[in-house]
Amino acid sequence: MDVEVVGKFLSTLPEDDDHPYRTGPWRPQTTEWRADGLTVVEGEIPADLDGIYLRNTENPLHPALKFYHPFEGDGMLQIVGFRDGKAFYRNRFVRTEAFEAEQEAGGSLWPGIAEPLSLAKADHGWGARTMLKDASSTDVVVHRGTALTSFYQCGDLYRVDPYSGETKGKEDFNGGFPFDWGVSAHPKVDERTGEMLFFNYSKQAPYMRYGVVDENNTLVHYTDVPLPGPRLPHDMAFTRNYAILNDFPLFWEPELLERDLHVARLHREMPSRFAVLPRRGGADEIMWFDADPTFVLHFTNAYEDGDEIVLDGFYQGDPEPTDNGTGTKWQRAFRFLALDRMQTRLHRWRFNLRTGETREEPLSENISEFGMINATYGGEPYRYVYAATGKPGWFLFDGLIRHDVVSGSEERISFGDGVYGSETAMAPRVGSRGEDDGYLVTLTTDMNDDASYCLVFDAARITDGPVCKLQLPERISSGTHSTWVAGSEVRRWRETDSAAQAVGL
């Protein structure tokens, strides 16, 4: 492995830090690496694995002003690229406006989601709360060959070179970007049309908006989605002809919001509501469907079935888990991050466009979340979901589960004690002929080896174990959202002798 340090950042976190989401598996990185010819620890890199895996995560350099929440660390991209049976690695901080400002200041300037806005040391901010730091640390997608990072409570989208991780500035949608509200995490790229669909939300009416960016990166549609008040949506879905948005009964307590206090509570007496509208439809074309009260962080896919829209996602059996007095003070404080406490299970909703009826049913008894599919099946009938299982009581992924939503069968594997994975992307093999004809790629944080690895599985046979295990230059922080971009979708991928040379590295 050819390794080079390309950046080193000063951390002001305390040396005796005891916060579980800044230590152990969540210990932040301060070094940016370039590594070519990754060492193969086990197996062999498949010759027909061609493209780039990208993962975003929170990686704090500075203490919070008062209370640190693991969703607000600085954004850092982890990148592993595969070509010609070889692999390379890059990691880079996302150079957001807020990141650069805090680097210059030598500490935090914005309050986090568990802190009052009055703590702000800056005179401006981002997000639905208006004074949050836009860390662009939540999600990453690739549209038109460029990676876009995003923040879950709305902010700017940052353009990142998917080879190198170099930040290329803010996305502007050819002059149409809604900088007043920003864009939420989890925009959706339709690989069939080249469009990107997104939503945003605010404390000001109409409280939610929805937009479409075309294959030329132009904002071609932007419409209100009127809601009864401020909400906290996190994800959306789409079909060939429709977009699906949501209004869940977990949102900021209105009485406290009047005092500028942002405390989310579950309003159990209210139903979940789903908005179905034509992909370029307006507010007057929205059909609303009621369903059982819950909260959904992530949907897997949606498609049309006759008169019905079929939507799959992870239903929370307990969106607001109570403090049961068990576990450490940290487990109790962050109980709403643990999959087992939220009781997240794969679920299906059916919305009948003719009758207005909603039907719903569980698809699995097993707890899982952060599901990924073969993205070429986005918006279309599909079969497989590759999801994470969670370590009880913690926001850590301890294994993988493959849900077959057609047969109902499931296969699962454990990463092993003390080993934690990332959201697992599905990479169709070159010349793929089926939905599961490809590989699963994930990154692990191995506390036993004090190391990190990239694992590659055969998507059709995950219980066989990894077909390849690659060592990374150092142990990385545990992380979440990821994406895969095929080499064929990346500019200059085949015009140079190596993938790294394609971007002058």
Features:
single chain, 505 residues, mainly beta, 2 domains, six-stranded antiparallel β-sheet, 4 helices, 40% strand
* Largest sheet properties: 6 strands, antiparallel
C-alpha Rg (nearest Å): 21 Å
Write down the oligomeric state: single chain
Proportion of strand residues: 35-45%
Query: What's the helical proportion of residues?
Result: under 10%
Q: Helix tally?
A: 4
Q: Strands across the major sheet, in which order?
A: 1-2-6-5-4-34
> Residue-averaged pLDDT, rounded?
95
Low-confidence stretches: none
Could you say which overall geometry the principal axes of the C-alpha atoms support?
A: globular
Quickly count the domains: 2
Structure class: mainly beta
Number of strands: 34
End-to-end C-alpha gap: 15 Å
3D architecture notes:
This protein is mainly beta and 505 residues long. The chain folds into 2 domains: 1-170 and 472-505, no CATH class; 186-382. The chain has 4 helices and 34 strands. It has helices spanning 97-105, 254-257, 329-333, 339-342; strands spanning 2-8, 31-36, 40-43, 51-58, 75-83, 86-93, 139-143, 146-150, 158-160, 167-170, 188-189, 196-201, 208-213, 219-224, 237-238, 242-247, 250-252, 264-266, 272-278, 287-291, 296-305, 308-316, 344-352, 358-367, 369-372, 384-390, 397-404, 410-414, 419-421, 425-428, 438-446, 451-458, 468-471, 482-486. The strands form 8 sheets. The chain has a 6-stranded antiparallel sheet, with no helix packed on it. Strands 3, 29, 30, 31, 32 and 33 form a 6-stranded antiparallel sheet that branches. It is globular. 50% of the residues are buried. The model has no long low-confidence stretch (mean pLDDT 95).
